[in-house]
Amino acid sequence: MSDTILFSDLALSAPVLKAIQNVGYEVPSPIQAAAIPVLLAGGDILGMAQTGTGKTAAFALPLLSKLDLSKSEPQILVLAPTRELAIQVAEAFQKYAAEMPGFHVLPIYGGQDMTSQLRQLKRGVHVVVGTPGRVMDHLRRGSLNLNNLQSLVLDEADEMLRMGFIDDVEWILEHTPATRQTALFSATMPREIRKVCDNYLRDAKEIKIASTQSTGDNIEQVYWMVSGTNKLDALTRILEVEPFDGMIIFVRTKTATVELAEKLEARGYSASALNGDMNQQLRERAIERLKTGKLDIVIATDVAARGIDVERVSHVVNYDIPYDSEAYVHRIGRTGRAGRSGKAILFVAPREKRLLYTIEKATKKPITLMELPSGATVTKHRIDQFTQQITDTLKEQSDLSFFNDLLAEYSHKNDVSPEEIASALAYLLQRERPLQVKFTDIKPERSERRDRDDRGGRDDRGSRERGPREDRPRRERSDENMDRYRIEVGRNHEARPGDIVGAIANEAGIESRFIGHIKLHDEFSTVDLPTGISKDVLAKLKKVRVRNRPLEISLDTGPRGDDYFSRKPKRDFGSRDGGSREGAGREGGGRDKPRFNDRDNASKKSGYRPKKFD
């Protein structure tokens, strides 16, 4: 169907149609062709589609076409399981509404400054894209008004179920107008998701689309598990050893293109930024320099790199992992052109492994772990290049008599051997780029084989169902590898463990499973974090706000051990037998429904041994 239907045939509004034409879209994907007419007609849909099939445009385009810009209250609400997906969907709405003056979309998620969100909601927005926990926060405080809500989208519903948010999703659904239009998208259809469809969707049309994403067989795909501390170090090593012709390095933001280009230029590489802030003339000039070999490396964003077709691009580096497989396929498609072979290198932070698995599943291609070049390997490579320069010079320059006489005279006058002179000249030549490289070798904190074993074999990885967090086996925390910190937010401030985990994970880059025991008290809380967190990260965390209060994190000086955790909070809940309602407090102080976010702490404990976080 999508082979014969064009976007211009789908009755989209003129501004939306113009925006997608500007970005080069002509033919809708299968899920877009099937979903857009139903949503334009006001019907509910149940879409079963993998990431990378174009589902964001499938709901964004028709819902934008029905938007009334004269109403400043939210008309569209999209729920997403992670802040990364929320940001991505919000950016997509902004792109598709480029020809709609006065349009406003707002992503809201935990760990972000609440004051900024409140200010923007007060000014007025048309579309809100958020994670369930933060959407609930705004609904409770009355800052998010859904009285004029027309459409609600549940994106990656099975992922929200896996993360324990499905109860929150139902709570939100119950606090939206009954007249709303609902679209639910899920890669799989577990029983709990089917129950949500039965209870909250009306005569929904089911659309099931199989992913056909694939990548070229002539592109070698590898990844390296890297942390923010040594990301640039890892890239530098790869550039030293990898024999590349032209290279495109993808990052997420415009600012990052400039910063990384400057850092690479400082290390002696011919690199240039390519982003949307550059005018067309500068952009075309950078691409032309890449084509002619005057430029070797381009650092680009997804939008800026669209349409780049340069045969000499032999490598693509995903310095920042893309949020969906569709973007990944577009990125690595910049290499392997005209039948040539190419190589795609993907940097994956520990907390981004889910995105790696999603990409592998959607593209149906394995991405293998690469071994980072060691300092000794880089040194050998530089020495080989240096000695080759000497060999080439001796071959190309047949008459070196002038330099022979000059050095012979110097040797005689200063009583220095020819070997010593050669060593001094070699030192001068390599001083800006030393042959002897001193890298601190980066070792993975957890073996990749063990990591793969934990999540099962490759063949059934994508389809294996995971139970709720409280049913999964817990990892035991090793106290000698954890430090206990005090944060100045507690139960009286309506803080939840899920809020604390989200704030720390987002700001410090610590994967949530490495965040240890969280203990809520009335006016403060304690949290166990891996030993070795840097002062810079702690300074940043001090300013992070949870429930609109700064964490003011500091090393806890109280006693460790079971007696510390067993102490009763000062507040008396009035239990006649003197017992403490710790359980009730942890589940949210007697709320009607258990908060699934509070269960996130069940699998945070491990024997993680980081050296240092930056």
Characterise this structure.
The protein is α/β, with parallel strands linked by helices and 614 residues long. It folds into four domains: 7-209, P-loop containing nucleotide triphosphate hydrolases (Rossmann fold), CATH 3.40.50.300; 219-374, Rossmann fold, CATH 3.40.50; 382-430, no CATH class; 475-603, RRM (RNA recognition motif) domain (Alpha-Beta Plaits, 2-Layer Sandwich), CATH 3.30.70.330. It is 39% helix and 14% strand. It has a seven-stranded parallel beta sheet, sandwiched between helices. Strands 10-11-9-12-13-8-14 form a seven-stranded parallel beta sheet, sandwiched between helices. Strand 10 (271-274), helix 12 (280-292) and strand 11 (297-300) form a beta-alpha-beta unit. Helix 3 packs across helix 4 and helix 20 crosses helix 21. The radius of gyration is 28 Å and the shape is globular. The two termini are 51 Å apart. The model is unreliable at 441-479 and 560-614 (pLDDT under 50).
Biggest sheet: strand arrangement: 3-4-2-5-6-1-7
Sequence stretches where pLDDT stays below 50 over 5 or more residues: 441-479, 560-614
The CATH class label of the largest domain is Alpha Beta
Q: Architecture of the largest domain in CATH?
A: 3-Layer(aba) Sandwich
Oligomeric organization of the protein chains: single chain
Structural class: alpha/beta
Question: Quick one: biggest sheet?
Answer: 7 strands, parallel
The helix tally amounts to: 23
CATH-level-4 superfamily name of the largest domain: P-loop containing nucleotide triphosphate hydrolases
The dominant shape is globular
Distance between the termini: 51 Å
Catalytic activity: ATP + H2O = ADP + phosphate + H(+)
Function: DEAD-box RNA helicase involved in various cellular processes at low temperature, including ribosome biogenesis, mRNA degradation and translation initiation.
Subcellular location: Cytoplasm
Motif (Q motif): 5-33
